[in-house]
């Protein structure tokens, strides 16, 4: 017996009344941050692109004049066909749903819709050339390739690039601000805030360069990739040339060898690169969170904002924590897309259909993370007083410099002697100076070591920031 109240139905009804009857938070709470992706990777966007491909293929066949039964369309008819694809509205979405309930086939529903729109017009006599010699995957693979291409290039890549440049800008601003480094969480050779940020910016830029260079492949070659139907209908036509011209005219790279489906390898390659960007960004989040917890970074507060429901003093690093979670979700989906899309039983199975419908979700969680990190970084400021206090309490980190100079001048057991002085101990400035003076080093070397402080022992960290170009885009390379 189920004695639980019907909470889920009540919640669903409330959500529906609010226009938020969604299962994914990307379509509810976080919609503003990912809105741009819906234009390219939603179900209506997919059907709109399928319709565009069907129209484009009919126009291509007409313009090529390779089929004896297909006349050349007039300029007015060409514009009418383009209009069918352009006038994709809510009514079109509803009509496609009606057709699919009958066809139980989403691509066939698009074909029938186009034929309906041609009925009763001067184009009715060419309607049977709609979807000519095509399998559904000839339409699908081109639609997905174009949608993913635009989603990445017009939405994800600009946002991810702007974030990398935001990190680079911070690196330049803080290039000379000394900071105690930590290896294994323990005090280590000092660095600068800017150099550490520059490392992350450089890593992000390398992955963006790879994403920018991604290939988007497409095919149009029939039910098993052999042009069998094409050849049977018009054996004298160079169907490979027709196919290549069409695919490349869609702004894609032509794949000459496929089964019924385009093999999706390009997708796996692209998602691997996006996933690596995500992992680097995740590393930035964990480092930023740690620096905040150490007091190196302070967070600027927004008027009226609440950090903790019970502890009013707290300003929680929620942007970075939310980003971590979204990056994990994105990478989980991108990884399963990479793994599954490259395999299809023999000529075709439908596992890729459900998988590809989640591309927008995978990129959406990444885009949401990018938005969170950008906002998080925008609220940070460096607290130089905390950095300086941490450095001043860690004179033992100069032990590396001292033992290296001792080794250069042939002194015995330099590592061991510094280990005895510093390991597991806090050493202040006077103690380190006393040790250096008693080493018997040449005067010049002694003077150089005595000038060192934890604040100045940063090597050429500030110069290394210059490896980031003044302004960067993926076009510039890594």
From TrEMBL:
Domain Adenylosuccinate lyase PurB C-terminal: 344-458
Keywords, ordered alphabetically: Lyase, Purine biosynthesis
GO MF term list: lyase activity
Annotated catalysed reactions: N(6)-(1,2-dicarboxyethyl)-AMP = fumarate + AMP; (2S)-2-[5-amino-1-(5-phospho-beta-D-ribosyl)imidazole-4-carboxamido]succinate = 5-amino-1-(5-phospho-beta-D-ribosyl)imidazole-4-carboxamide + fumarate
Metabolic or biological pathway: Purine metabolism; IMP biosynthesis via de novo pathway; 5-amino-1-(5-phospho-D-ribosyl)imidazole-4-carboxamide from 5-amino-1-(5-phospho-D-ribosyl)imidazole-4-carboxylate: step 2/2; Purine metabolism; AMP biosynthesis via de novo pathway; AMP from IMP: step 2/2
Entry-linked InterPro entries: Fumarase/histidase_N, Fumarate_lyase_CS, Fumarate_lyase_fam, Fumarate_lyase_N, L-Aspartase-like, Pur_lyase, PurB_bact, PurB_C
EC number: 4.3.2.2
Domain Fumarate lyase N-terminal: 48-323
A Pfam family matched in the record: Lyase_1
PROSITE patterns: FUMARATE_LYASES
Coiled-coil regions listed: none
Recorded family membership: Belongs to the lyase 1 family. Adenylosuccinate lyase subfamily.
Function: Catalyzes two reactions in de novo purine nucleotide biosynthesis. Catalyzes the breakdown of 5-aminoimidazole- (N-succinylocarboxamide) ribotide (SAICAR or 2-[5-amino-1-(5-phospho-beta-D-ribosyl)imidazole-4-carboxamido]succinate) to 5-aminoimidazole-4-carboxamide ribotide (AICAR or 5-amino-1-(5-phospho-beta-D-ribosyl)imidazole-4-carboxamide) and fumarate, and of adenylosuccinate (ADS or N(6)-(1,2-dicarboxyethyl)-AMP) to adenosine monophosphate (AMP) and fumarate.
Protein name per Swiss-Prot or TrEMBL: Adenylosuccinate lyase
Organism: Aquipuribacter hungaricus
Gene coding for it: purB
């Amino acid at each position: 017996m189920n004695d639980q109240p019907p909470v889920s139905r009540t919640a669903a009804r409330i959500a529906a009344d609010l226009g938020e009857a969604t299962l994914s938070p990307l379509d509810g709470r976080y919609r503003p941050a990912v809105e741009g992706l819906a234009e390219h990777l939603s179900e209506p966007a997919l059907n709109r692109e399928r319709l565009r491909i069907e129209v484009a293929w009919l126009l291509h066949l007409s313009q090529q004049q390779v089929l004896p039964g297909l006349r050349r369309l007039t300029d007015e008819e060409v514009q009418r066909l383009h209009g069918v694809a352009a006038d994709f509205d809510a009514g079109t979405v509803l009509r496609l749903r009606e057709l699919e309930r009958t066809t139980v086939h989403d691509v066939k529903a698009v074909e029938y819709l186009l034929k309906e729109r041609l009925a009763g017009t001067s184009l009715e006599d060419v309607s049977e050339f709609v979807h000519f010699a095509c399998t559904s995957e000839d339409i699908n693979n081109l639609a997905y390739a174009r949608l993913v291409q635009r989603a990445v290039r017009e939405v994800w890549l600009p946002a991810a690039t702007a974030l990398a440049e935001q990190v680079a800008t911070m690196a330049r601003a803080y290039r000379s601000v000394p900071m105690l480094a930590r290896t294994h969480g323990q005090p280590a050779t000092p660095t600068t805030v800017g150099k550490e940020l520059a490392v992350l910016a450089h890593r992000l830029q390398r992955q963006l360069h790879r994403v920018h260079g991604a290939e988007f492949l497409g095919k149009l070659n029939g039910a098993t990739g052999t042009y069998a139907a094409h050849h049977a209908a018009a054996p004298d036509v160079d169907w490979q040339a027709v196919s290549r011209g069409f695919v490349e005219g869609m702004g894609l790279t032509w794949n000459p060898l496929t089964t019924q489906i385009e093999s999706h390898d390009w997708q796996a390659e692209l998602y691997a690169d996006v996933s690596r960007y995500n992992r680097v960004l995740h590393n930035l989040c964990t480092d930023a969170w740690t620096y905040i917890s150490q007091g190196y970074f302070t967070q600027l507060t927004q008027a009226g904002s609440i950090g903790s429901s019970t502890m009013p003093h707290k300003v929680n690093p929620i942007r970075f924590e939310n980003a971590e979670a979204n990056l994990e979700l994105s990478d989980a989906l991108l990884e399963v897309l990479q793994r599954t899309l490259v395999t299809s039983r023999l000529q075709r199975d439908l596992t890729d259909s459900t998988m590809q419908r989640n591309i927008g979700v995978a990129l959406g969680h990444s885009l949401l993370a990018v938005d969170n990190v950008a906002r998080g970084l925008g609220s940070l400021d460096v607290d130089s007083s905390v950095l300086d206090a941490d450095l001043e309490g860690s004179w033992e980190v100069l032990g590396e410099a001292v033992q290296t100079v001792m080794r250069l001048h042939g002194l015995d057991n330099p590592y061991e002697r510094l280990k005895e002085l510093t390991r597991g101990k806090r050493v202040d400035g006077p103690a380190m100076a006393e040790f250096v003076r008693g080493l018997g080093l040449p005067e010049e070397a002694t003077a150089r070591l005595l000038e060192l402080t934890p604040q100045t022992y940063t090597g050429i960290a500030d110069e290394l920031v210059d490896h980031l170009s003044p302004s960067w885009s993926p076009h510039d390379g890594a």
